[in-house]
């Protein structure tokens, strides 16, 4: 991915308040083609709000959102067709069979990839003859995913896409999501509370806490640079360390590069441990 190309999605100092309560706080973030970005944060941290602002469904209180080089407020119909979205609770197409629902949905997208649709129907084991209203929650989510992905959007936004999928479907989906992004040069932004999935498939992690983006970095860098430091009482932290949380002599930091005077230990953390340490 080339950082000098146009970002697929760019947030510039985006804030959003509801009745004076801040849900996003001056958030800046740029995503590029080929990135698979996992969005992690506690319930109510602002993940869905961020996604809705990215889609233009919700207007920020201040700041700029750009999608594929255009302000999200002025997206052309052509650019809108390059975006795929699966909300937390997909709905619609009651009264249709899966096949009919797909026929209708497909008709809106000239770029639809029929082979991809067929492959994903098989992958999720969906029966095209089944009525949509008789599908289980997970099957509905699978259908919504097929609908959002089969036209190979340049930006794919998925709000907890695998929450209702069983572990086998989830694993398959996550692995294929990554392949699809690489293959189609798409950019994927997805939220999930399943940290092992994020760790396995995301190229980048965006960590959001109470509406603030506390970290955005490559997963590989995260493994190297985010540490839980144990310090001697009088230790001085180097200035270039970014302190994420502190509990006495235990300090959670980003940007860790090397040992310094007074450092007792620098423990690596997996994503779940990082999440726990950040919120204690
Ligand atoms: N339409 C709305 N009206 C009022 N408040 C809202 C609205 N949408 C979100 N909020 C508030 O904004 C904050 C962020 O909510 P958001 O849904 O973005 O969180 P989230 O990180 O997606 O949470 P979860 O993991 O539970 O889905 C919460 O305090 C929520 O109550």
From TrEMBL:
The lineage of its organism: Bacteria, Pseudomonadati, Pseudomonadota, Gammaproteobacteria, Alteromonadales. Residues 9-235 form the ABC transporter domain. SUPFAM superfamilies: P-loop containing nucleoside triphosphate hydrolases. Coiled coil: none annotated. The keyword Nucleotide-binding applies. GO terms for molecular function: ATP binding; ATP hydrolysis activity. PANTHER family: ABC TRANSPORTER ATP-BINDING PROTEIN ALBC-RELATED (PTHR42939). This is ABC transporter related. It comes from the Bacteria.
């Amino acid at each position: 991915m080339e950082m000098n190309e146009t970002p697929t999605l760019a947030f510039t100092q985006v804030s959003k308040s509801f009745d004076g309560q801040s849900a996003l706080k001056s958030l800046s973030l740029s995503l590029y083609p080929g990135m698979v970005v996992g969005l992690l944060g506690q319930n109510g941290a602002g993940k869905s709000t961020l996604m809705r602002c990215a889609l233009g469904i919700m207007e920020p209180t201040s700041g700029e959102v750009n999608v594929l080089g255009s302000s999200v407020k002025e997206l052309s119909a052509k650019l809108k067709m390059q975006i795929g979205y699966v909300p937390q609770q997909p709905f619609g197409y009651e009264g249709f069979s899966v096949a009919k629902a797909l026929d209708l949905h497909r008709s809106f997208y000239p770029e639809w990839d029929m082979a991809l649709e067929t492959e994903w129907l098989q992958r999720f084991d969906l029966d095209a003859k089944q009525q949509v209203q008789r599908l289980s929650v997970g099957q509905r989510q699978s259908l919504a995913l097929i609908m959002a992905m089969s036209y190979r959007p340049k930006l794919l936004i998925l709000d907890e896409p695998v929450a209702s999928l069983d572990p086998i479907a989830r694993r398959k989906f996550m692995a294929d999501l990554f392949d699809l992004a690489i293959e189609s040069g798409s950019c994927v932004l997805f939220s999930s509370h399943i940290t092992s999935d994020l760790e396995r498939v995301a190229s980048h992690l965006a960590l959001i806490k109470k509406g603030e983006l506390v970290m955005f970095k490559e997963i590989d860098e995260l493994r190297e640079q985010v540490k839980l430091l144990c310090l001697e009482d009088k230790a001085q932290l180097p200035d270039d360390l970014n302190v994420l949380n502190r509990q006495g002599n235990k300090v959670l930091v980003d940007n860790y590069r090397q040992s310094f005077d007074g450092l007792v230990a620098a423990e690596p953390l997996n994503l779940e441990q990082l999440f726990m340490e950040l919120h204690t």
